[in-house]
Amino acid sequence: MTETISFPVTRTNKTKIQDVDFENLKFGATFSDHMFVVDYKDGKWGQGEILPYDKWSFDPSMAALHYGQAIFEGQKAYRTSDGGVQIFRPLANLARFNQSAVRMSMPEISEELFVGGMTQLIQIDQDWVPKKEGSSLYIRPFMVATDEFLGVRTAEEYRFAIICSPVGQYYSEPIKVKVEKEFSRVAEGGIGNAKAAGNYAASLYPTKLAQKAGFHQLLWTDAATHSYFEESGTMNVMFLIGNTLVTPSIGSTILKGVTRDSVLTLARERGVTVEERKVSVFEIIEALKSGKLIEAFGAGTAATIAPIAMIQEDGVDYHLPPIEQRPFAAAILKDLNDIRTGKAPDRFGWMMKIV
Ligand SMILES: Cc1ncc(COP(=O)(O)O)c(C=O)c1O
Question: From the CA of 301, how far away is ligand 1's center (Å)?
Fold first, then answer.
């Protein structure tokens, strides 16, 4: 168990846990009893504390609401087969959070506040980590600018907080995706590789149109030419062509997924060749037509591994082989789940045991 840094705790006198249906969890709709909060002022972070989960009040001029200095992370804690609890790769999420902070002109945060706050919070709310297979506790660290000021400038005051939500499976079936060639979510030199709230806002309208047309998600392409794949919704995207796993390389337009890195590591362990490079839409459609594309899937914290059933490009539907004929993604998903739940050795040092 990790040594816990002790932040002051105010416990709730009214747990909500008895109202939760752990058999039917809706993503991001239920929150655990407590939250971690710390404020940044006068050039430094203050005292972190654990409080009952509750509403906040804020000034209508709060900077984040107007100019979008808002970043977040998404990660998970898992129930192990021996009844314990462990967090998946918290230091990777901390590193990405601080990269996002730098790009968004926000203050970086220490491991003590980010990982220490998360650890103590989940130890207190450990009963909220679901026991059902395939379920987990989603952890949402985030930071917002809190200046009460309407001038456009880097804010001087911030709040960092962590909230937790028990979640089940994200997609219940293999997904249908559309290659997006009209709208862009991010562009070269922008903030696509930061986990910034505005990136998600930019994705909502095109995603809504696609969902109305019957797709689960979009496959985003580069803003300049719309001919290279970037990512899909809140997932990185991967293609198995023969025995080679191909995925778009990370630049300024793609989020450096923790799941992506983990899947690539597990693929290499299985002897699969991994290529991180530019992946053209043309190449993938040709591979689909010739039957060389064996599997395609999204990889991300919320969905874990989401197999792609169909890709639509320019109005033409391309179907992938049925899920039963796709052993690779299933094997990687099992490897990941076994490490997370302690059924397999943690051979890459990914897990932080906290209970
Ligand atoms: C835009 C985007 N891409 C990729 C990912 C996958 O990243 P991770 O595996 O760290 O969850 C996410 C989710 O966090 C995301 O929001």
Answer: 6
Tell me the CA–centroid distance for residue 30 and ligand 1, in Å: 21
pLDDT of the residue at 299: 98
pLDDT at 40 over 60: yes
CA 88 from centre of chain? 12
Q: Which helix (H) or strand (E) holds 264?
A: helix 258-269
Mean pLDDT of 90-101: 98
Reduced to 3 states (helix: H, G, I; strand: E, B; else coil), residue 290 is helix
Residue 1 placed within a domain: no
Q: Give the atom of ligand 1 at the shortest distance from the alpha carbon of 185.
A: 1
CB 48 within 8 A of CB 114: no
**C-alpha of residue 235 to centroid of ligand 1, in Å:** 5
Which of 169, 188, 216 delimits the end of a domain? 169
Alpha helical stretches, state H, 270-326 = 281-290
Q: Whose CA is nearest to atom 2 of ligand 1?
A: 234
311 in the same domain as 216 = yes
Residue-wise pLDDT for 239-276, tens only, equals 999 999 999 999 999 999 999 999 999 999 999 999 99
Residues 310, 320 contacting (CB under 8 angstroms): yes
- For residue 309, which of 178, 127, 180, 188 has the smallest C-alpha distance? 178
Domain membership of residue 74 as a residue range: 17-169
Taking the C-alpha atoms of residue 63 and residue 147, their distance in angstroms, rounded to an integer, is 5
At 280 the three-state DSSP class reads strand
Q: pLDDT tier at 3 (50, 70, 90 boundaries)?
A: low
Handedness of CA 113, 343, 300, 276 (dihedral sign): positive
What is the distance in A from the centroid of ligand 1 to the CA of 60?
30
pTM (two decimals): 0.97
Q: Does 71 contact ligand 1 (Cβ within 6 A)?
A: no
What pLDDT, on the 0 to 100 scale, is given for residue 4?
57
The yes-or-no verdict on residue 195 having pLDDT over 50 is yes
Atom of ligand 1 nearest to the CA of 233: 1
- How are the residues of the chain apportioned to helix, strand and coil, as percentages rounded to the nearest 5? 25, 30, 45
Q: Is 202 in the pocket of ligand 1 (CB under 6 A)?
A: no
Last residue of a domain, one of 109, 143, 169: 169
